[in-house]
Amino acid sequence: MNDEQRSLLLRSAARFPLPEGMRFSYGTAGFRADALVLHSTMFRAGIIASLRSLKNDGAVIGLMVTASHNQITDNGVKIADPSGGMLSQLWEPFTDAVANAPDADHLLRQLICDFAEKEGISFDGSCRAEVLMGRDTRPSGESLLEAAKEGVNAIAGSAATDMGVLTAPQLHWMVRARNRGEKASEVHYFEQLAGSFRCLIDLAPNHGQKSTISKLVVDGANGVGAEKLELLIKMLDVSFIEVRNNGKGGGILNEGVGADYVQKERVVPDGFGGDDVGIRCASLDGDADRLVYFMIPSASGKDIILVDGDKMLSLFALFIKDQLSVLLQGDVKDNSFQPRLGVVQTAYANGASTDYLKRSGLEVIFTPTGVKYLHEKAAEYDIGIYFEANGHGTVLFSKCFLSWLEARSNELSSNSAGSDQQRAALRLMAVSKLINQAIGDALSGLLLVEAILFHMGWSISQWNELYHDLPSRQLKVKVKDRTAVVTTNAETTVVKPPGIQEAINVVSAKYPRGRSFIRPSGTEDVIRVYAEASTKDYADGLAKSIAELVESYLG
Ligand code: 16G
Ligand code: ZN
Record's superkingdom (predicted)? Predict the structure, then answer.
């Protein structure tokens, strides 16, 4: 590193001092905190993103300013790798150390110089870094994004491109597209989603009835997802989708609205009520990477029927599996290629969903909580479908599968155009374009759900009937030190403190279909408790007993 670069870094870093007494951790989904204390973190995240780009020979890196479903006064930052996926876990310890460096000197000499040398990152200008930046609608976003830009600019020759207000998945999609040499603007994103959605509708057996698709009402969490969905609807030129909670009517981001609220509280979000009984409803979260559906069963209460990430996973898996089997039917020539289809869940997946998927002949695997783990596992399949119950998930298609599919589709169009097999191939290709393969995306997920329901001719109730969720209950327990709990087997078994797992097993066995687990939260200072059982009272009782166990071992 030359003197000029050194003094540039030192000068800029001195303008963004670390707030006293704060510790930041990249956690499961980036840095998050009260927006007022985040300027140094943003500046430093800008540096990390630049270094990450240099490390990848100048590939585009993404930096998204958002705190997702958290309250409006919070903010945060996530970094997207060249693939459009989350920042490599290998860089997390460095990222944490940079965020917590006490001063500019420490940051430069003890961290950046050492790390750059170890990673073979050179500052000689032979490679130029590029960072694409986006932010959600939080009022603090603009000034925090400026701080991140300064971080990028503190590495000479780096370029920060501000893409303005975006959903998190849009930014991830753009990063992926840019690095694949594809068109990557917001208009291209909308065009790709709209085009592939239309294609799936036109390929549906009942396509003649597309003007009869019943109404869908979407809760936009008063956030960026609402704004972007409105644009997407214009491009789709459809009238069946109504967006509520778009932030324009005075509602506050994530307050009494949004996917996280609906999924955790299981109550009707603001802006919805008695007039919506029986209608298909959906909720996005604050940065539109999560989606859940719901129904309001009666005008008199606040209860909802939740159709969560597990149900979306099941719907997608069923459709894809069907199309795949049509495509492979009686296939003599290409029998050598048997695509591997796998589904990935976490311990939070409702036991009934896992049973359903297994009964349907699907391979189900589990990973710890956090999109990065699920995504990594899903990428091992030709078609890997992953979802967390909270509504974050997507479908990944391997390069090898997509080239096979394209070849197969070309072959079918010359030999048997209009056949079931050809349509199945075209549908799978459309799904691969509609679904955001960089990361879970509420907008593309929503269009895929809508296209599949239309294809099947199903209402939301019919979809919901795929299987019946076991009643479940989640609690959190405040403890002195959440790191005292260490888990294994995708968070289903506690190895520390000793003895607690055996106690959990004994209690769970007392309840019909009882299953429970505990894990330290990655985003809050608590131990989370999950319990499910054959009735609501049993699930509540089991959760309460497990929470008491946690208190007695760790309180
Ligand atoms: C983050 C994760 C989400 C996970 C949640 C768990 C991403 C993009 N988001 O929001 O996947 O479900 O954390 O939170 O990875 P917890 O560790 O506090 O339970
Ligand atoms: Zn989110």
Answer: Eukaryota
